[in-house]
Amino acid sequence: MKWTEISIHTTQEAIEPVAHILHEAGASGVVIEDPEVLQRDFSTGEFGELYQLNPDDYPTEGVIVKGYLQVNSFLGETVEEIKVELNNLLIHNINLGLGTVTLTEVHEEDWAHAWKKYYKPVRISNRITISPSWEEYQPESPDEMIIELDPGMAFGTGTHPTTVLCIQALENVIHQDDAVVDVGCGSGVLSIAAIRLGAKKALALDLDDVAVKVTKENVKMNGLTRQIEVKQNNLLDHIEGEYDLIVANILAEVILRFVGDAYKRVKSGGYFLTSGIIAHKKEEVKEALLQNGFTIVETLLMEDWVAFISKKE
């Protein structure tokens, strides 16, 4: 089977929306080549580092986001639609940088595993290390918790700043036997982290059937099928009951759609953790949280990304 690799040269700010556009266009697999990962400090220098990354695999400036589209009679139209959606990002004041789009034909066996060279074990918080399922990794301390992850065709290797912020926020507020909802679960890393950190059960939700499938596989691989329920669902639509904690690592525009629903579903004294927020959207999300009754407990920052720990008093 033949595939076309579509490469978009853009900025850190645009990684999430560009990846979303590729995904919506039918891209099977997304690779992010971000040179900042070569120097990235996942907190303040006290945790581990990424291993065996080759600087030659990364652009000298900006970020390259790659998606893979099956070669068919509609490929030309699909590429044009992607270009239109990229231009639409400018309306939302998202900096595309160079914004160049290039196409390369590849064979399935070339791309299906090539992205794995970018993904190595990394300790991202005081207690959590994320290790790809194909890597052998030994804990460096007795209290270190390992999450084995295979992102497959879903978003989320667990090492993006927005995910790191979420896991660090979880460490700050999670309590033993909490019930957690993970909205937009991607590869399931936040649900798995919540259980590792002491939660009793987690409900992982995603509208994307590929993400649901990958999350189920990762939950099984980590031996947590009894504690984590995975469902295909749009945000918190039709979700009943109250939970100790809701976590959402998704675009700010999406978070704004369901802040009110999150307030209804969080127990009194519970927390709503939000990440995936680019810096210039910070105040907009903060205002929505406050208007809906949440109190901002802590604001976490990493690079150009923001996460909020908010509480229902």
Please explain how this structure is put together.
The chain is of the alpha/beta class and 313 residues long. The chain folds into 2 domains: 2-118, Alpha-Beta Plaits (2-Layer Sandwich); 122-311, Vaccinia Virus protein VP39 (Rossmann fold, 3-Layer(aba) Sandwich), CATH 3.40.50.150. Helix content is 28%, strand content 29%. The protein is built from 9 helices and 14 strands. The protein has helices at 15-24, 75-89, 108-114, 161-173, 189-196, 209-221, 252-255, 259-265, 282-291; strands at residues 2-10, 30-33, 63-70, 100-107, 122-123, 128-132, 145-149, 179-183, 201-206, 228-232, 243-249, 266-278, 295-302, 305-311. The chain has a 7-stranded mixed β-sheet with strand order 10-9-8-11-12-14-13, sandwiched between helices. A 4-stranded antiparallel β-sheet has the order 2-3-1-4. It has a 3-stranded mixed β-sheet with strand order 5-6-7, covered by helices on one side. Helix 6 links the parallel strand 9 and strand 10 (228-232). Helix 1 (15-24) runs antiparallel to helix 2 (75-89) and helix 4 (161-173) packs parallel to helix 5 (189-196). The radius of gyration is 19 Å and the shape is globular. The N and C termini lie far apart (55 Å). The model is unreliable at 41-51 (pLDDT under 50).
